[in-house]
Structure formats: structure tokens, C-alpha cells
Design goal:
This protein is mainly alpha-helical. The protein is 42% helix and 4% strand. It folds into four domains: 4-104, no CATH class; 148-212 and 442-532, no CATH class; 261-434, no CATH class; 633-703. The strands form five sheets. Strands 1-4 form a two-stranded antiparallel ribbon. Strands 2-3 form a two-stranded antiparallel sheet. Helix 1 (20-31) packs across helix 4 (93-104), helix 8 packs antiparallel against helix 19 (494-502) and helix 17 (442-455) packs across helix 18 (476-488).
Amino acid sequence: MRTLALLAPLALAPAARADFTADVAPILERHCVRCHQPGNTKGEFSLATEADLKASGHVVPGKPDQSELLRVVVAQAGETRPRMPKSGKPLTEGEVAVLRKWIADGAKWPANVTIKERARAGAAWWALQPITKPKPPAVPDGARPANAIDNFTFAKLREKGLAPNPVAEKRALIRRLTYDLTGLPPTPDEIEAFEKDAAPDAYEKLADRLLASPRYGEQWGRHWLDVVRFGESNGYERNVLIPNVWPFRDYVIKSFNADKPFDKFVYEQLAGDVVAKGDPEREVGTVFLVCGPYDNVGNGDAKALALIRANHADEMIRTTTEAFLGLTFGCARCHDHKFDPISAKDYYALYGTFAGVKHGERALGGPKGARAFAGTFDAGAGRNQVVFVGGDPQKPGAAAPPASMAALDKLESKYAISPTGPESDRRFALARWIVAKDNPLTARVLANRVWHWHFGTGIVDTPSDFGWMGGRPTHPELLDFLASELHANGWKLKPLHKLVVMSHTYRQSSAYRAPAAQLDADARLLWRYPPRRLSGEEVRDTMLALAGKLDHDKEKGGPGFKLYRYVQDNVATYHPLDEHGPDTYRRAVYHTNARAARVDVLSDFDCPDPAAAAPRRASTTTPLQALALLNHKFVHDMAGALAARAEKDAGPTAEARVRQAFVIAYGRAPTAEELNAALPVAKKHGLKPVCLALLNSNELLYLP
């Protein structure tokens, strides 16, 4: 056991003076300021500055034996370990000796020096390095890559002693690709035509047709709406519907269908009032800023109002940085980020950028334009932005003018602009920096999202967190290759889609191989295509499509439909509908998604609550899913409509009708075993129970 008698200065010669910057500050950074800094009440006092040190009274200059700082970092009689630090490793004897010598020499602290906890990831963090375009590696002997993507995945598989599966059979391929790009099942005629097409480019033609479909924007626009927490009620305790926020949903769908370059997409969402002033079709992009939850109750207390405004700004900062940069800036609201190189000053530079954005309506396209919930802008807000110490608006700190994050200040695209200029200049400067070609984050994050939505898991499995607490890339060279392809194609997504879906990695079978699974159970290295269950929207839309009830004539946007009864008093309530009438037979992307509103079938199958961003969706297995599919009136209605469709197409015999129901549902005829099981049921009870079983089947709900 160590005692004060053992505190001889082991690390320094007796005559040496402890250098604060080189010797003392690193010790305080490693062990102390995590809990003892401004705004962290857990530590009760701060050791971040000389003034804090004096105020704490824990150091008596020239008298180490009377200094509490030394007593708490050394185990005393009867103690099994020092009292401080409470977590982590105790100080070494050498570190204690350095502190003793420093105190004995007068505890000198250089002027204007502040101690900060060091982030785990610094400027050398992998995600902050420049994007390169690596050369595709050589492939194993005998491997036949379809394009450069396969070179990267095959090489990684070879490192682990693995090999990819062969190409999937054609029915699985058309089903996989059609759902992936459009969110809907292929028709029996489309499946038959593809299976019969022996041309070498049959699959490529299929990919081109699906990428050109208006259904593509509905599927991939839904992905983006998840990322940007798009909801049509304000949340919080009132949670009332916002009747005119839906134009943003239509804008996103149209942007994806038009393959709008992503850099323009970013500009329009952050500064559409600048880059598209007078063009309502693009100016509506600024709904991005205000389509998250916000508190509109109001409060007469000035301090409470300041906190509400701070929460609104924080919500915009978090969404923007996580969606575009894959960094959790929100963690720096109260103090420098503990894990990533994001300072509180970086955070409040963005706070001032968004301080002028207010929730509300404005006319788009000029004074007489249609009004939409696209935010309003207060030109005077945020001009004198400062750091809020500990995140408290009542504790102003150092100035934080609008600027790019300091960890990337070596980029040519870095910016620092006058806080007294127009409010829109700040948002425009931020957008310009986000999509600058030398910004290493945006293209990587976007390429990873595309990969995530194609394969179910990204190369980085935390698509909105590329920091220390996020995942590490399984294929870092491939990620950079895909990011560089985005740049080369002018930020357009459809060329990247085609590159991905044309690869062998994407087209391979999902067949399970036990030896490979022992080495890579989750198929992160892609020795097979990872099978997946349909999303909640896909489950509902599939039932409508198979039943012949999906109303594409209404898929031109506009106000959404509701699968709940909306009641508004002081607060809003949402009562799920037991019956879904024909007016709801639209694609689920057009549903009016309210926060904290449960919707049968969709909620059961993990559609996220838009109270927060959902960069990754859960895929759970619960009793409610089985109960909903077996008992909900909507599912029974669709089973009845599917039965009527099969009866109309097939003619009078029960066998022909059963066969047709299988063809519509699965794109194939039933096997002899399936026919023998279904036919007696159809003869005794009619075709509807058979169709209900088809709608409940794994073959329908899962994609191989």
C-alpha cells in the first residue's frame, strides 16, 4: 500500500522543475478534468483554469503535504485504492511525483491556459482524413468480379478464408431488386418476362427500368425522411398536426426521382431561401430545418424561453451534423466532446448559424405564393453568439462566431464569416462547406448510407456516427472508392446505385453456409447477400398491390391520408382506425406521420416514431406482428380482395384459383405439397383463408 512517505519524486531529478505544459497538464487532462470542469456538477469543483484551482482550495502552493489534491490521488491507511480518480486507473507513482514537485515549486500555472479533457479521436481520426480513390485490389484466382466493388469484397473475403456465394436465381433477383429500388413486389408478368429473357443484359435492363420508375423516389425518399426525422406533428405535450408540412415529403420524392445532385439537395435544405428564392419547388427544401419536434406551448418566463430556443437550435444542429457529416455535434452542447474532436466553440458556431431559424409558415415563391411550414428567419438572431457554459443560456462564455469545425481547419474550404452579416449567409456558408469536395465526411457518409440501404448494414454500421463511439469500416478502401465515385458522378445517386446492384456482391445468393457463418455470422464481409424482412411500409404496400387495390393515380403527392382518428383539444390524441377505407389505399410514404401516434401494421413492423431521426431501422419479431397479420380487418380485407382477383383471373375451378393466388403472391405456381394443403381449405371455406395464409407467410415477408 502506498502512503505519503512513498511520494518521493521518482520521475524527476531533485533539482528539476516540473514543466506545467509538458508534465502537469497531461496528468490533469488524463485523470481529472473529465469530472472537474465548468458545467460538470458531478465533480463539485473545476480544475480547468488557474482561477478554478485557487477557488477549489485543493492545492496549497509550496506545501504538497497540505494539498488535498495529493491526498486524494494516493491510497491512505485503510484504503484499498486512492479516492481519485473514481473510475479508471489510479495515477502512477511517477505522476504523483510530478504533481508533488509542481506544488512544492509553487504550483505555477501559465497565464490564459485552460485544461480540457482530451477527445479519444483527434484530427488524425480515420473519418477526417482526405478521401482517396484506391486502386481495386487483385482478386483471388478463379474469381470473376462483375465490377470494382467485387475486387474489394472478394479480397477481404480471401483474407478471412472465405468466398462469395454464386449468383442468385432469377426470381430471387428480380424480387430483391424490385423491392430494393421501388419498395413494391414485381408483378407475375414481370417475373415471367425476366426469367425468359436470356439476353446478357437482361438484368441491366431491369435495373435501368426500376431506377427510372417513379416508385424509386417513393422508396428512397422514405429512407431520407427517416434520416431527417420528418414528422407532421410538432411533438411535445401538445403534439398537434401541422397541416402544410407535406410539401417537403413531395419535394424529397421528386428530388430522388430526378436524381438531383446531392450537393444541390443540401443547399436547398439548408439555404433554399437563398439558392432557390422565388422557386417554390426548391425553396420548400428548407422545411428540413423545422420538420423536427418543437415546443409551441410558450412560456412567460424569460429563462424558460431561452432554454426552449436552445432546445430548438440543438435539434437542428444534431440533425444537420448527423445527417450530412455523421458526427454527433450535440454532445458538445455542454462541454467539449469527450470522444470526438468537436469543441463547445464548434457547437456554438453552429448555434449562431441556426439561431435565426424559427418554426412557422411562410409564402414560397414570393409574397403571393402558397404558404408552407418552411420556417421563418430572424435576421438579427445569433449575431453575438457565445458559448453557453455548461449548456446554460444564462451563463455566457467566449465568443463563437460562425465557422467550420476547427479539426478540419486545414481544408481550403474552411470558413469563418462575420456574425453581423445576413442570417442566410451563415446557413449558405455551412452548406457550401458541407458539400465542398475536400470535406472528407459528407461523401463518405452518403456512400455509406447508400450501401446500408442496399445491404441492410453499412460499411460503417452506425450510419450517422463516424466518430469514436461509432462503428469502424469493414471495408475502408471500398468506402473511399464509393465516395470518390459520388464525386466523379457529380453527386448523383443513380450511377452509384447501378454500380452497386450490378456487382456480384449484390447479386449473389443468400444461401446459408455453416462454415462461412462460423467465421462471419452476420455476413458483414458479404460472403452471401444478407436476407431481410420487409419494412412496415413494404408489408402494407405489398398487400395493397397483391390485392389490386394500390391506387397509383393518387401518387402525385399532396396532403397525406390518416390511419388514425385525430382529436384536438388542448393536446392532440390519435386513435388507430379499425377499418382502413379505400381513401387510405395509397403507398405508406404518403401517410400523415404524426409523432407518438401508433398505427396498426406499420408500427407493428417497426416503422419509427419521427420524434427522432432513424438512420437505422429495427427489425423485431413480436407477437403483435402475428396478431395483426392474422386478425386486423385491413389484412382480412386485402385477403378477400386477393381472393377475388385470383377468382376473376383463373376461372371457376378451386385448383385454378389456388394456383393463381400463389402466382400473384409469390410469382410462382404452388408445389404439389402446397397445393395439397391449400386445395381442401379452398374447397371447404373458399379462397380467402388461403390468401390470408399467403399474406402471413415468410416467403412473402422476407427477401432472400
